[in-house]
């Protein structure tokens, strides 16, 4: 890895940078950022304005205490929270989400998510698939698919950005993998606390151009020995990489200090530290996600807190659920105010639900049999609840919804036909995005 260092120097766009991208594999291994960008421009569909923000709740949120309350169940099942009416007649959710209740007409609550593998990881929420029986190269995340299909909307902003930081339990920190689509479609992940790694540390434009000359020399050498011609066109993508380095657009999108403080207060600030071995409760990330989509990203993933509550379920819920309620509703209102909500899909969920019966430590344990999710935006028909569980919240009794159905629906809203779109895996075999013979877009929504 090569990180550019130097004294603090204003760049041509007057943005003062302390450090910017770590550029991977500068020698014969190639430039990571141009490799990342190369396939983004392959489709030529750079004006497509649709996008998705995926909010992952690491650890498995308790469905009965959120959007599938059971007010008539026994106390050891229904828990400590009351249910409240929403703007949708007949629909009730937990009292922990009063803001969502007031704008439920712009949301869809799915109470019957099935097909969870039961593993503690983000993979299924990012791809729709389990880790078992993957094709050669692995399944790509939704953001990688968008990168491959549509490419970059703006050469200064990556198509796919992942905001989840390192965690004690790293499978929760997964921002998504490109799988058989290749590393060019991996998520761009700002490193360090806040966005401190997104600055260029004191290198002048002359010195930056010197690096470009070195790269050009390596590229000419590689092209001479490249029998398959795979180096053709690399210079253009190297130029894009340096365009990102010398543009303030991405750095600005990541800098919430540029926002109106009143809007930041509407989202809430949260805490920029990981909760135990899970994610941070940094509400600024919800605002950053909107800023990135507005700047040109197509997919942004983020994680919020840690929901593996085997003990003190209700105490932890009283801390985290109001913050989630505030940030999600602020995000939807912000997108709507900017005329983006019909184009941007928002999904909130975790890898599975939690046991209906409260354990001896006041917690709920793992329950992959059923879970819940929230969808909004994307031009879908909202203001409804889909699916139902039995009186105790143990299993789906109406309209089971598989993870892959949610993905098929998101792809449909994003303009991708899951019945016809295929990509070759690393063995050259065509792969569909979902098992479309079983799982299509949800007719209730699209």
Give the SSE map.
Layout: E1 2-3, E2 9-10, E3 16-17, E4 22-23, H1 32-38, E5 51-56, H2 75-78, E6 83-85, E7 92-94, H3 98-102, E8 107-114, H4 123-127, H5 142-150, E9 160-162, H6 205-224, H7 234-246, H8 249-254, H9 261-267, E10 270-274, E11 280-282, H10 284-295, E12 299-303, H11 313-337, E13 344-349, E14 353-354, E15 366-367, E16 371-377, E17 384-386, E18 388-389, E19 396-398, E20 401-402, H12 403-413, E21 422-424, E22 430-432
Parallel strand pairs: 5-12, 5-13, 8-17, 8-20, 9-12
Antiparallel strand pairs: 1-4, 2-3, 6-7, 8-16, 10-11, 13-16, 14-15, 18-19, 21-22
Task: Quickly list its features.
446 residues; alpha/beta; Alkaline Phosphatase, subunit A; 8-stranded mixed beta sheet; two-stranded antiparallel ribbon; 22 strands
Give the helix/strand class: alpha/beta
Q: What is the CA-atom radius of gyration, in angstroms?
A: 22 Å
* SS field, number of helical segments: 12
Outline, from the CA principal axes?
Answer: globular
End-to-end Cα distance? 45 Å
Protein name: DUF1501 domain-containing protein
Pfam family, one: DUF1501
